[in-house]
Amino acid sequence: MVTSIHKKRKNLEISVAIITRDRAKSLFRCLTSLEKQKKALLKEVLVVDNASTDSTKEIALSFQKTLPIRYLKETKVGIPYARNRALQEAKGKLLAFIDDDCEATPTWIEEMVKANKKHPTATAIQGNSIYKPERSIMSTIVALDQVFWFHLNTIQKNQLLI
User: Fold this and answer.
1) pTM of the full predicted structure?
2) Would you give the DSSP letter of residue 19?
3) Would you say 27 and 20 are in contact if contact means Cβ atoms under 8 Å apart?
4) What's the maximum distance between 2 C-alpha atoms anywhere in the chain?
5) What is the C-alpha to C-alpha distance for residues 104 and 126, in angstroms, rounded to an integer?
């Protein structure tokens, strides 16, 4: 049933949710990166403000001319509350989360849609993450952690097949 819906529609409209709290400068860079996306696929950008005390609201609303921004204030502090608010409010057929301190590649939304079409029954799809600066100690640690996680899960899956 889900597959047939995906085949009938050429473009799936996507909601992008950004959970943010007191990181207006990072949010600005994230929203700037979303301006480069294919607009035909982008139904809305939900900025879920998790009780910020900085200029988060002003930054979010300053993108209303270039992005379909929906600013939402979530007063219960905590990522789970903010994510649940995004889940309740999203109007797109797909919902993609991006962290406020991340920048989307120019084809990020297209890649999410392609992955969903390829795996229509998947509950969640994660895109490639690039940590900046790419040559920092933190990005190196995260990259090693991802490699370790991948190998650990591959070993566990192979053991289950034996």
Assistant:
1) 0.74
2) E
3) yes
4) 56
5) 12
